[in-house]
């Protein structure tokens, strides 16, 4: 019936008609003039040859004719196709690299435009085509009757499935990494560029994470490139499971990965996500019959705060990644403006550290480990200290990672080991000495010999030396690690696993490594008295596990009596923390021992409060429509101490401008002369570098609109019409010089 409708008006079938003038279409014979008959025969041959097919629609866009070969190709009954809407049967591939819209067919039909070689896909959910997709190139032109009324489309089509899938594959190879299936550098650059351009106009945020793998080269060198490739695939799969549909992941090459996270600028959530990435990537990998352990570091930059353009954001996330790696690896960092000179700073510090080591300018301080039942000191942990002649005190968290990146760590470690053994040889025999061992130092083939020489040179009994290791020592070759453990235990020294509970695979280490002690990480103690944390239960579990394995447990970082009482109630028998003593210089430790009984009574605050970081920097304090300059002296996650404002009543609401778009809403809880204490409405979060930052930042666009200073913001074209109007009230506080 559909076929007849196409030829209505050309004539009717008649027995009297000459046979050569009858064109046969299935069971329908149509009387045609000779020229038209030949033309239709050519079209019939065209269809039968499979060169292409014909189709037609009515004025409402419903299919009224389609070539029989096309029906067979689609493996559909004709009745399933006729009278169906073209847009219901066919759709444009939204991932088609050559198309700019995901609905061009519907648009063309509604506009009654001429269609030329438009690629469409037979709509999904059609029988066998759910497994195999069919692609057509269709052309068509609108048809009008003698009165100028639109009566539908007439067109042609051809199957281009093979060619189109080849095109898609070529496009995929150009856009995706062939090893991991993740986006490649080209696609990630284009994605980031288009995202930032769109988000800039919409004033939306976008975060960029840069990752590279720690110790990947070691896996490649020891297990081979095939194992390295397998490892990269597994890393890509783990990243995909964590990120899901929140962003796009790319492999830039080698062991470098990048993650684009649209509409995410909460630095609390970003820090949690980065921590999870680090932890999951650091889990062991099965590579054939071998097992490998690597790590990763993460650098984070956020648009528009850390850059408005692609190149700026990539450069700044790279700088943050560099800072994370310099900070000791296995860490994350947010970009900040002061990272720009970090590479040069690290080089200068390395030179100074080398000189300080040769000049014997480093020293060891000792922090007591105390038995809780009688408060007797049973050991001292050696902690390295460096007082720079010009820069003053430099934290081990700064210079140890620099030493690890150079060959200095082995020299530094050997010096510390020998000095600690030498000092401990003069202590009471009941007091041990603990020395931290870097993973780089532990992996050195001659490390057991270095320990042997230190003991022999100082005469210290082996069982009085305790070597503190972290899980990172297991990132090396497993056979070498086992040999080193056997050699050390053969010497009779004690081994302690430091920072226990912060890694994912600690229990697997305990099965094979001969540890004598576990040290509960300070992070659990910091939050053990908070009701919404599970830290107290974790501490109890670690102590119970240690007891079951016949090991000692030392709980680190106890500072207040509420923490002390809690960990003791959970079974803690040894504590190391400020409640007993801060690290002591050797002279102070010897003086305490001189009485013959090295005993320390606990002393500290009743309640633990979040650590406050002392500082000395200018900030803005905003009250109503006035801005004051003040001095920030102390900062914690929950509050701050500020100097420079007189007459601020308790309960006053303020906003602290900490720079770079960081505005912290707070209320005054204490006011004494020119000093006030404030409590934050929303706690600050870790910046990954031992500092604190606000979860959110106010967009540069909003700051510009409010007339705020833009010196700390990234370059860009911001609104200039919004200079602040004159204050509508008188200032209520007096700003004084500090």
Give a description of the structure.
- By secondary structure, the protein is an alpha+beta fold.
- It folds into four domains: 50-167, PAS domain (Beta-Lactamase); 176-340, Alpha-Beta Plaits, CATH 3.30.70.270; 346-593, Alpha-Beta Barrel (TIM Barrel); 613-735, Thrombin, subunit H (Beta Barrel).
- 35% of the residues lie in helices and 27% in strands.
- The strands form eight sheets. Strands 16-17-19-20-21-22-23-24 form an eight-stranded mixed β-barrel. It has a six-stranded antiparallel beta sheet with strand order 4-3-8-7-6-5. The chain has a six-stranded antiparallel β-barrel with strand order 26-27-28-32-31-30.
- The radius of gyration is 37 Å and the shape is elongated.
- The termini are far apart.
């Amino acid at each position: 019936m559909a076929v007849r409708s196409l030829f209505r008006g050309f004539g009717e079938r008649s027995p009297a008609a000459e046979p050569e003038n009858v064109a046969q279409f299935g069971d329908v014979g149509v009387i045609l003039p000779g020229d038209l008959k030949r033309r239709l025969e050519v079209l019939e041959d065209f269809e039968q040859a499979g060169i292409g097919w014909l189709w037609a629609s009515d004025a409402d866009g419903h299919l009224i004719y389609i070539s029989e070969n096309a029906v067979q190709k689609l493996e559909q009954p004709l009745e399933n196709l006729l009278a169906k809407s073209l847009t219901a049967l066919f759709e444009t591939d939204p991932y088609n690299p050559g198309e700019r819209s995901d609905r061009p067919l519907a648009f063309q039909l509604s506009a009654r435009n001429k269609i030329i070689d438009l690629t469409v896909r037979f709509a999904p959910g059609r029988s066998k085509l759910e497994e195999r997709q069919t692609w057509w190139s269709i052309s068509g032109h609108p048809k009008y009757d003698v009165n100028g009324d639109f009566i539908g489309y007439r067109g042609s089509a051809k199957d281009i499935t093979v060619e189109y899938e080849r095109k898609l594959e070529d496009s995929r190879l150009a856009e995706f990494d062939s090893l991991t299936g993740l986006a490649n550098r080209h696609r990630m650059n284009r994605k980031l560029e288009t995202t930032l351009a769109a988000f800039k106009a919409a004033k939306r945020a976008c975060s960029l994470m840069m990752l590279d793998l720690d110790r990947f080269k070691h896996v490649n060198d020891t297990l081979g490139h095939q194992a390295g490739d397998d490892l990269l695939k597994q890393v890509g799969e783990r990243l995909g499971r964590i990120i899901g549909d929140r962003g796009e992941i790319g492999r830039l090459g080698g062991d470098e990965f990048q993650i684009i996270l649209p509409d995410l600028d909460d630095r609390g959530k970003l820090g949690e996500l980065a921590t999870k990435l680090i932890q999951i990537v650091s889990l062991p990998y099965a590579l054939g019959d071998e097992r490998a352990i690597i790590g990763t570091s993460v650098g984070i930059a956020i648009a528009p705060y850390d850059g408005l353009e692609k190149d700026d954001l990539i450069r700044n996330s790279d700088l943050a990644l560099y800072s994370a790696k310099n900070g000791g690896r296995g860490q994350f960092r947010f970009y900040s403006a002061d990272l720009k000179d970090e590479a040069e700073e690290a080089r200068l510090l390395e030179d100074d550290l080398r000189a300080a080591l040769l000049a014997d300018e480093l020293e060891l301080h000792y922090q007591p480990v105390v038995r809780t039942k009688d408060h007797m000191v049973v050991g001292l942990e050696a902690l390295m200290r460096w007082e720079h002649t010009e820069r003053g005190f430099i934290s081990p968290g700064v210079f140890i990672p620099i030493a690890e990146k150079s060959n200095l760590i082995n020299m530094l470690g050997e010096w510390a080991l020998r000095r600690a053994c030498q000092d401990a040889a003069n202590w009471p025999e009941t007091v041990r000495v603990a020395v931290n061992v870097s993973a780089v130092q532990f992996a050195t083939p001659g490390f057991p010999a270095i320990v042997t020489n230190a003991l022999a040179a100082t005469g210290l009994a082996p069982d009085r030396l305790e070597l503190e290791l972290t899980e990172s020592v297991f990132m090396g070759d497993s056979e070498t690690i086992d040999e080193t453990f056997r050699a050390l235990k053969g010497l009779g020294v004690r081994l302690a696993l430091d920072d226990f509970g912060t890694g994912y695979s600690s229990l697997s280490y305990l099965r094979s490594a001969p540890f004598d002690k576990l040290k509960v990480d300070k992070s659990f103690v910091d939050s053990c008295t908070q009701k919404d944390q599970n830290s107290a239960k974790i501490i109890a579990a670690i102590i119970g596990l240690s007891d079951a394995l016949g090991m000692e447990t030392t709980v680190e970082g106890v500072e207040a009596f509420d923490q002390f009482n809690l960990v003791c109630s959970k079974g803690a028998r040894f504590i190391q923390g400020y409640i007993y003593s801060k690290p002591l210089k050797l002279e102070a430790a010897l003086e305490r021992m001189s009485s013959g009984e090295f005993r320390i009574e606990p002393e500290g605050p009743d309640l633990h409060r979040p650590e406050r970081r002392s500082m000395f920097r200018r900030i803005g304090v905003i009250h109503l429509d006035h801005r004051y300059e003040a001095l920030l002296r102390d900062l914690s996650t929950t509050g701050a101490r500020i100097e420079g404002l007189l007459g601020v009543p308790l309960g006053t609401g303020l906003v602290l401008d900490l720079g770079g778009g960081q505005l912290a809403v707070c209320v005054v809880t204490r006011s004494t002369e020119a000093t006030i204490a404030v409590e934050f409405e929303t706690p600050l979060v870790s910046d990954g570098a031992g500092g604190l930052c606000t979860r959110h930042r106010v967009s540069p666009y909003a700051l510009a609109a409010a007339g705020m200073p833009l010196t700390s913001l990234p370059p860009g074209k911001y609104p200039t019409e919004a200079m602040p109007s004159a204050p509508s009230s008188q200032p209520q506080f007096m700003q004084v010089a500090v």
